[in-house]
Amino acid sequence: MNKLTLRFFLLFLVCSGECLLAGNKTVPPPAAERAAKLLSQMSLSEKTAQLKNCSYDVIKPFVDANGNVNPDSLKKHFPTGVGCIGLSYSLDPVFYVKVANHLRQYNKSLRINIPPLFIGEGLHGFVANGATVFPQAIALGCTWDTDLLERVFDATAVEASARGARQLFSPVLDLAREPRFGRTEEMYSEDAYLASMCGQAAVWGFQGRNGQPDDKHVAATLKHFVGHGQPEGGRNTAPIDISRYDLMNSHILPFEKAIKAGAMCVMPSYNEIGGEPNHASKWLLNDILRGKLGFKGLIVADQDALREMYKTHKIVPTLAGAAKIAIQNRIAVDLRYATGAYDELEDLVKSGEISESLVDEATLKVLTLKYQLGLFDQNDISEKEVLKVTNSPEHKALALEAARKSLVLLKNESNTLPLDSAKLKTIAVIGPLAKGVHYGGYTAEPRKGIDVLDGVTRFSKGRFNVLYAEGCKIALEESSFWENGRQTPNSPENEAILISQAVETAAKSDVVVLAIGETVSFCREAWSDEHTGDRESLELLGNQNKLVAEILKTGKPVVVLMFGGRPLTFNYVAENVPAIVQVFYPGQEGGTAIADVLFGKVNPSGKLSVTIPKSVGQLPCYYSRKPSRMRNYVGLNGPLYPFGFGLSYTSFQYSSPKIDKTKIGKTESVQVSVDVTNMGKKAGDEVVQLYISDKVSSAARPVKELKDFARVSLQPGQTKTVTFTVTPDKLEYYNADLEKVIEPGTFEALVGSDSETLKGVSFEVTK
């Protein structure tokens, strides 16, 4: 047996033994077996081609108006095939399919037929022209409904796979603990447990529950590993100032859960921790991700992140140096726009800088993934199927359900809501976010959906009249598309006119619905100094507070809808407006869902997935603080609204929790039960929350941590007993030595409707 044959034989054994690309799930041997066999036939250039993911811009010059791709141009630029590619999300669905099929046909014409892997984004729906737009991630977190999320991401997978996109860069499992950060909208929650459960649901939705996606599912990609949600100063890609202890006990937990759920891919973040970029961190990628977490799958770099190692972080003098570090850290795919670090791999191998076995290992992972996804056995992508499933009636209904459950009622003084349509003659819909859909980042053009004005107007038919006024502008040329939008303010003179018109409109109405907040022009991924999205303040932008004040002077009842991708510090609104609904970005059916809640067709049931601070000076303001962070600022006590908070049109009463055991061993579980009663006259859903407090521990632990929750539906006067099982994994943590332990001592189980309104019962864990 020669050395080359021996190497591929060993690779096959490694591949089979590790069960590549399925987290902790078992991979069917044929995928790994077929991949190893194919690898043995490939040249070095054919292998490195599989490790490069390019953007649509690279092939766009070779695509004609009918979607035909020039094969001669492809032969020049991709002589050994297109390995991985992201097609533009703005392409018409039928055009998209034609381009994808032509790329598949081109690869078939080469010496070895390896189908391209089409990748995409799936943050809150497949990012593609015409696809269903669900509520933004931060709003999905407010549903506290993991079954719903699994269905949302199953629908996303169906729409993506129909177009041939079989790997999606989602879910985002970072913790939303720095709201100045413009990418806060992409995260489910500030809390590790809630983010973990949302992430698990997303992975199951994308991939299915058996760890082996069928032709209607996709490979999930967990991002951004890790700590990305809490950058220094809230600036995108800034250093992460978090200890390894806190990383392990909070930020890494959602990734750990999703890997156990079978996630196939992971993407590191741009940030650096302790001077070491995450893409270059042996500790993160090998010791933790592949070691402690047991991840055996494919690691894909973030967009041009390998280039950033020498361009921004400056830890290497050349692009080749970045490629060497990345491949040694088992990063298999270089995601880039055109050229990138992995263009240097062939020369690095030929010069002896790296072993070809590293390229073999990375290529084997990509090939195995392609076999697992059935790409080699796939027929041409069907235009008919794409048109059938894209934004189908079933998916629209699901988007409406998600939007309804995502809305959080923050204030309802004097039962201002629900509005009684039978008693209304005229309603005024006012505000810079009342007209036009607002989806947040990672959505495609053209944007189609139901905005607030549409939703209220449709509901009003045959009931009452609707008036509209813009009120003020957040920016002179506002855009809801995340890649555009100038941040130029309106002139004071024009603002005065708009506010005056709004006051006149309000005076003619019986009630005012005021849509304000923030848009994606100001809260988004800040990828350059010309495309900013992080803020030093969380106050309402422009003249929105002035608009609210002037509208309130009319004496009309006012309901505020608070839009945006992050929690804002709207103290004046909270103090003076009788009714407030936190909307975030509710997706394409948001206007209908908002109207349903405003007029009582739907009883709101959302709960905050993040804390809303009173001031940016309170940050960090997440609820699961350490015991030593106990002091309040002068004249400033607590947040504006706590994590887990959300009102209903009914009220719920909790009994004192009961426990089935007062002492348990480290391997035992304890059951905590509470009776919840609907005390009002309306049926409603309540999200019952369980927190655990470790009273004494060898390392400082948070004062309380969410460990379970349950959504229950209750009729008026109905009582239900909710029982939580506190299993050993809900009591363990990584100690100062970063070893997972359950320490003996006293624990308190706290049950209630939010993180501050809780009743407790204690139990002891023995040695």
The radius of gyration computed from the alpha-carbon positions, rounded to a whole number of angstroms, is: 27 Å
Strand order of the largest sheet: 1-2-3-4-5-6-9-10
Largest sheet: 8 strands, parallel, barrel
The total count of strands amounts to: 27
Unreliable stretches covering 5 or more consecutive residues: 1-6, 8-22
Q: What's the mean pLDDT score?
A: 94
Q: Can you count the helices? A: 23
Structural class: alpha/beta
Describe the structure in brief.
This protein has 767 residues and is an alpha/beta fold. Helices cover 31% and strands 18% of the residues.
Q: Describe it for me?
A:
There is one protein chain. By secondary structure, the protein is α/β, with parallel strands linked by helices. It is 31% helix and 18% strand. The chain contains 23 helices and 27 strands. The strands form six sheets. Strands 1-2-3-4-5-6-9-10 form an eight-stranded parallel beta barrel, surrounded by four helices. Strands 11-16-15-14-12-13 form a six-stranded mixed sheet, sandwiched between helices. It has a five-stranded mixed sheet with strand order 19-27-26-21-22. Helix 19 (452-460) links the parallel strand 12 and strand 13 (465-469). Helix 13 packs across helix 14 and helix 20 packs parallel to helix 21. The longest helix has 17 residues, at 146-162. Residues 1-6 and 8-22 have low confidence and may be disordered.
